[in-house]
Amino acid sequence: MYRPVEFQSEGATLRGRLYLPEGESIKPVIIMAHGYSATIEGMVADNYAEAFREAGFAALLYDHRNLGISDGEPRQQLDRWTQARGYRDAIDYVMTLTEIDTSRIGLWGDSMSGDEVMVVAAIDHRVKLVIAQVPACGRELPPPDPDGKLFESIKNTFLHGNIEVTPETTMGPKPVVTFDQESIPALLQPLTAYRWFIEYGCRYNTKWVNRATYISPKVPVKFTSALCTPYLKAALLMMVSFDDEMPGANSIVARHTFAIAPQPKKLIEIDGGHFGIVHYPSPLFDMASEAQVAFIKAHFGD
Q1: How far apart are CA 69 and CA 84, in angstroms?
Q2: Within a 13 Å sphere around the CA of 269, how many CA atoms are in the beta-carbon half?
Q3: Furthest C-alpha separation in the chain
Q4: Which of 56, 71, 156, 226 is the most buried (most CB within 10 A)?
Q5: Residues 6+ apart with CB under 8 A from 253
């Protein structure tokens, strides 16, 4: 179904899987990475990759730097800027593959990665399609940016900026989830997060660890797709919960982020909260994966 691959990003080797459909023709590719601390083995992103492969598209699914089978230190450190640069370096990697149609590159992200893929695509116009699944676009609406200066600052930070870690920008290390926030505070507080991560992350060989450090480097403008989507030149599919229980994935902010994006775009509002479409097998997974395949086919062809 796939072959192991690796590529370099920010001084570390990132590892993952290249899913290739049958046949010798070159294929469009969807580049994929999981959300907040999750890994690619058995935590449902791999099921989406397989759905894309079965539909005739290639998929590159990899673990973010510092997580899972990818290298990088400190382990379990999460940083949107570094992860976004990982997507950029994954694009560079697929550009070298003879099996891939490099004129048809898409990005897929879930939760925190859903925020990241929209920022990357707004800056790197090699990306022609974006699927942002329950994206964590932020807790609050962004400030106005009528002249685009805030977006330019994000772009400059992504391309060239200093994103070094300092103590005041660090949250953790803490458990990712716990069942008792009063006794053992965690990075993610809703019980739905605890249920999903324990059910899927604790499966054999996922390499998920229930501890992480979240980093917000000191930069001129905070990382957020809510300032970037007006500059997309890629087709955008957003799947947003009617009322997302994760504070960082505020549904109002996500709908605003979608509203300011140019066409072509499609918004699908979903049941199941933040984690419903990452339960497999389930009717919600079937609905989401079928909608995503249909969107890819509409813009990349069969």
Answers
A1: 18
A2: 8
A3: 56
A4: 226
A5: 137, 138, 139, 140, 141, 142, 226
Q: What would the pLDDT profile of 84-121 be if each residue is shown by its tens digit?
A: 999 999 999 999 999 999 999 999 999 999 999 999 99
- Of the candidates 117, 80, 89, the one whose C-alpha atom is nearest the C-alpha of residue 257 is 117
Sorted by where each starts, the structural domains of the chain and their CATH numbers stand as 2-165+224-300 (3.40.50.1820)
- Copy the structure tokens of residue 41: 């083995």
Residues of the chain with pLDDT > 90, as a percent, come to 93
Closest CA to 273 of 247, 241, 238: 241
Contact 3, 18 (CB under 8 A): yes
Q: What integer pLDDT is reported at residue 17 of this predicted model?
A: 98
Which residue do the tokens 């992504």 mark? 158
Q: What is the pLDDT of residues 46-65, one digit of tens each?
A: 999 999 999 999 999 999 99
167 has a pLDDT exceeding 90 = no
* pLDDT at residue 235 tops 70: yes
- How far is it, in rounded angstroms, from Cα 135 to Cα 124? 19
DSSP per-residue letters across 41-89: SSSSHHHHHHHHHHTT-EEEEEPPTTSTTS--SSTTEEEHHHHHHHHHH
Helix (H, G, I), strand (E, B), or coil: what is residue 19?
strand
Residues in the chain: 302
The model's pTM is 0.97
Q: Are 61 and 40 in contact (CB under 8 A)?
A: yes
- 9 pLDDT more than 90: yes
Of all residues in the chain, the percent with pLDDT exceeding 70 is 99
Which DSSP string do the residues of 229-274 spell out, in sequence order? Answer: GGG--SEEEEEEETT-SSTTB-HHHHHHHHHTSPSSEEEEEESSTT
Residues 187 and 175: beta-carbon distance below 8 Å: yes
CA gap 175, 169 in Å, rounded: 18
Q: How far apart are CA 230 and CA 60, in angstroms?
A: 26
